[in-house]
Known about the structure:
Strand order of the largest sheet: 1-3-2
Number of helices: 34
Radius of gyration: 33 Å
Shape: globular
Distance between the termini: 66 Å
Number of strands: 3
Oligomer: single chain
Strand content: under 5%
Structural class: mainly alpha
Amino acid sequence: EGNARILLSRAVECVPQAVEMWLALARLSTYKEAQKVLNQARLKVPTSPVIWVSAAKLEETQNNVSKVDVIINRALESLANKFHVTLERETWLKLAEEAEKSGHVNTCRAIVKATMEVGVEDVNMKNIWKEDAQGCIARGSIETARALYNNALDILKTKKSLWMALADLETKHGTAESLDAVLQRAVSFCPKEEVLWLMAAKQKWLQGDVPAARQILAEAYSQSGNSEAISLAAVKLERENNEVERARALLEKARRDCNTPKVWMQSVQLEREHTDDPKRTKAHELVEEALQHHPTFAKLWMIGGQLYMEEDPPNLDMAADFFNRGLQVCTKAVPLWLCALDCQKRQGNWTKARALLEKARLKNPKSEDLWLAAVQIERAADNPKMAHHMMSRALQECPTSGTLWAEAIELEPKSAQNAKSVDALTKCENDANVIVAVARLFWRDGKIAKARKWFNRAVTLNPGLGNAWGAFLAFELENGTEEQQRDVINRCHQSEPNRGLAWNRIVKRVENWRLSIAEKLRKFVDEIYPDSLKVESITAIIHDALHGKLVLEAKQEPAPMEIENQPNGPAAAAPPSSDDPKNDTDPNAVNAQVSELLKSAKQEPQGTKRQQQQGGGANGVEAKKEPFVAAAKFEGPRAGYSFKRDEQGTGYYLDEQPTKRLKRE
């Protein structure tokens, strides 16, 4: 080290403009000697900001924090006034990020603070600062971003978007204490912004400090006046903590002060959940009173009819009459039509159900949910020909509906489902419902790796689709390891799904309102995929998690997204095995890829656990050949098949007397 210092001392004498040599010499020197070296370096290279920043870092290593700001401010003044050096904003930010990465946080903050207004105009300063902070976060420079937000808020104290951005940063990268501090500052400078109060209250609630959350909401209510959002947040806080009487009192006050449809609806829901009266008298009275104030709010009509259906015994005639009253004033409310339809189905009134659907489709001709209901009515009535007819009409009206295409795949006989899935993917290649339907085909055929890939693709494309998560979990319960099952449950918990007709029909039942996401998943699987919960290999940990006895913690990050394109991109649903860049935009190429993928699925020697246990699949009795395999073009001879175009389309048709298949090794 001594020899290196001697060499560097001689080097800076010979090459005094070499900044890196000066910095290297300073690093090999003691504190006092390093100060002298850096002072000499500034004299020799007066236009270099790096030397000034190194001097600030040196003082920070000695805990001389007060000197750090002084040095950085002197640097800007010296460079600008004495030597007329004006550095771009990006250069200063890069120096700040480098200081952060080297562990000199105070130097980083000082640079950001001193250069906040460099290259910024008053007109767009907020947007520039936000973009800079977001860029820093993307590069992993969290302290730099935090400094940008904090200094921006010292100047623009009342900008809600800046406060929310800083709160988001603290949520992801900070501590509970730092988030609390940010939110407290936010509500003090923006007392009229409801969302900031709600964030502050929720943070206290998550910490288990219910009295503090109540106090924040009470203060928020006094600041914002008759706020629906604040009132309902206070009600939710009390309901979740089983303070039913407190919630009733708050709702009664909110009905007087706010008188909004949502307040009335939550009042009914509270009585609906917390009642021992089999006739639900109090809830019925509130519904009727609410409809006098808000007669066109469809959800009140839906809840009122459902109350009759929940009576013991169910009063289906009164429910049907109530739904019909609502439909006279809410003709465009598709969910209300579906509720009325469900009531008729439960009574077995197929003729009335069909008539109701015809009337609903006249009012809402492009509603995919109504067309889906029409198909399902015919399937439930064991009328397959009419179901196919309805599906054809439905796809003419809604040709890009993934929900309808997924149902169309299920509607076809097993031998034609693969071909129908190709059509579905061609029409709506990025729809999660279709992706789930294709994944189920792979699952059915025992192609476990492909099924898992497509299920993962579905929940990545649409994390809010509960139907996809339920199917994914059912699949993993039969075929996956404990770690894979744990991963699905954890990712579903993070996504908090709230879409899907079947999912909502199950989880929105009153008895399921308070269940955790894992318990809702179990309810869904138990009703839609009951055999999956009977698998003996389910471990005690997964069993307890699905019954609300255990909260799982992820052991690893969620599985990465296997789709490189964005969900709206044309190639998002293209098979991942393709190497041809043309396939990103060519619909015919997508069709050929899907055909190949589905065709190869029938050849892949895999099998489910259940098949292997029963001697089927790859390790047991050879599966029966499909009579038809879709293919866009001739891909070479296949034993026992002829390539031609016939009634099921272009592809390979099974010969009448197929040759004996060669056994694989």
